[in-house]
Amino acid sequence: MLDNGTRHPNLVLLKLAGFFHDNGIQFELILDPKADTSHYTKIYMSRVFTYTELPELYIRAKGTSEERKFHCGGTGFYANEANVMEYRKMREDDMNRLENDEFLNSLRNFHGGKEYGINMARQMPYYHLYDSFVNQQVEKGFKREKYKDYQKYSIGFLTRGCVRHCPFCVNKLENHILPYSKLQCFLDEERDDNGKLIRPYIYLWDDNFLASDPSIWRPLLEQLIETKRPFQFRQGLDERMLAESPYGEEMAEMLSRSRYHGDFIFAFDNWKDHELIEKSLKIWKRYNPKKGTKFYLFCGYKQAEHSQDKFYKDIWELFQRIKILMSYGCVGYVMRHEDYHKAPIPNFYIQIARWCNQQAFYKKMSFWEYCYRNQTYWEQHSGFEVLDEIKSFDAFQKDLSAGFYAHPNKNGKVRKICRTLQTALDVLEMFPNHYDELIQMYNYKMEDLIDPILWQNRI
Fold first, then answer.
1. Residue 410 Ramachandran class (φ > 0 left, ψ -120 to 50 alpha, else beta)
2. Are the CB atoms for 53 and 75 separated by under 8 Å?
């Protein structure tokens, strides 16, 4: 949060706050990355992402007696460790650190499992931890609704672990999926003066819920449905299980009668899974033909500045995944690995994400139309007359050859090509042998590709 934040609260901090609250220990959320920490006895800092910058208050304390106050953990401190044995050691240490914490083990546990010390699976989060942050942002002029994730959700894991071994995932060494928290351990029942639930929604952070044993996912899913509360598996569900599991149709049917919050979220991270994803989509769409369905689209992994072939392969596979999703009436959400910064043209990933991740663009425009609409938006706000808000690529090429984009306006300002459009052109220039194929991919459009026959027919 101190590095420009995330719109999700940190579950570790919520549970630590709950443990301190149970024991009557004074605590507060540090909002200022430069804060004076001299009056604190202990400081717990959780870092989820490796790209999150460490706050000045911690950097300032490094190498001094003040550093002893800090207890730091989270995947952000080790997720990029390449040595497998070292990663395994760091992961195990991190997952058990708080339950081995000497100070925490001097305090009573009020939720079972042991008499002293925090039990992370059973500990009820303290959902008011972020109230001071939200109030601060509201005072700055932001709408309170912008921070609904901090205010309206019960948050937890029902299961932990995965079996997929994805090399980019923190669960890459896991081999099992086991029950973790019981729903009542994090389901908040606080109500306002009118008797309405303050936190009516449920966020679940499970790593791979559907790949657990049916004796695990089936009763847990039934419990979620019985709460009658809208819920969402925030990290997505494993769509492949609908085709791989003998219970795939049961999964689709149960989810179809749940009160799901927002779009159903799945993942389509690897092109090699496309046949399995399509088979699963046929099952899913038969039971959920009208429900919003979104897929995370992982990309940018292991890119390198001089690896043009790897770059092209990655963007080709990304567009092909998008094409399949459009054909089934599903939306995509591009998730960039931080390696995208090393790609020959890293801004291309940014532009695809800006197009794909905004459904108003994705559902109505091709990538080319999005790029050119950025161009005319710039022109309109720079004093140029715009006759066509969107041009076909052929029309643009003719105008470009005729010198249309070199003409100044009445104020002498040249009609330049905006960065979004220039990035798309730079990729075309980089790959002349794939020129026609790229133009075809740039013009993928949902309304042209969607085909209900794909899922209306039985497999």
1. alpha
2. no
